[in-house]
Amino acid sequence: MVMKSPDQLKELVRQKYGEIALQDKATNESSCCGSGCCSTEVYNIMNDDYTQMEGYNPDADLGLGCGLPTQFARIKEGDTVIDLGSGAGNDCFIARAETGSTGKVIGIDFTPAMIEKARGNAEKLGFNNVEFRQGDIEQMPVAANKADVVVSNCVLNLVPNKDGVFKEIYRVLKPGGHFSIADVVLQGQLPAGLQEAAEMYAGCVSGAVQKEAYLELVKQNGFTNIQVQKEKAITIPDDILSGLLDQEQLAEFKHSGTGIFSVTVYAEKPCCDPAAGCCS
Hints:
Family: Belongs to the methyltransferase superfamily. Arsenite methyltransferase family.
Organism: Cnuella takakiae
CATH architecture: 3-Layer(aba) Sandwich
Shape: globular
Number of strands: 8
Distance between the termini: 54 Å
EC number: 2.1.1.137
Number of helices: 11
Order of helices and strands: HHHEHEHEEHEHHEHEHHE
Keywords: Methyltransferase, S-adenosyl-L-methionine, Transferase
CATH superfamily: Vaccinia Virus protein VP39
Radius of gyration: 18 Å
Low-confidence stretches: 29-38, 40-44
Number of domains: 1
CATH class: Alpha Beta
Protein name: Arsenite methyltransferase
């Protein structure tokens, strides 16, 4: 196998999610996080139901998430919220229902087609305090100490340099600010067949890291009060696995104790920060 560089992996994700932006929700949900590795066993592998949440807009819901981070994000009226990997704008519009007209929501996505789709949705809704910026979440087009809250839904696991993203989250958060991020993590080692599959990478699984390593990254980047707000196991149907693993590998995987999980992680930027001073 020829190992892809971080830039090649990012370009793979950009191309895949550019295609996804042109698909409807039903097509995306029937695949592995929108990757196209469709399953005949289940309709929806990871995505939680947003439809009862205030601010939900069906045109912005592409069925790509693995949690409901905005539900746990403790967003208050007037807050500035940044959504990483904002897609068609689903979490941004739900966050806007929490911030109200006095707050601000900034969505960041590096896929041009997603930005175009999100901006069109915001225009239809008439929101003048929700904006979408094209950019890399490893180098966010946002000033330091800008956000009260950062949210993200099933995105960081697609980024090769997760440490760089957490550094950026720390930079853009105000002292005392916090994040709530839904992501995919592992317990145990995935078989090589899954690791090598580009479809599974763009589909949120083989780009994931070990849960303990993920939480340690958060801690190493200076965050405090780290909590796992929600955790659920992800079961990949046999008809997907059988296309990636032979029968022996499949049996071994099922009995290995290896787990794939969706977790929603909360953490805070300390109120007293050497670079930014202390909160009032």
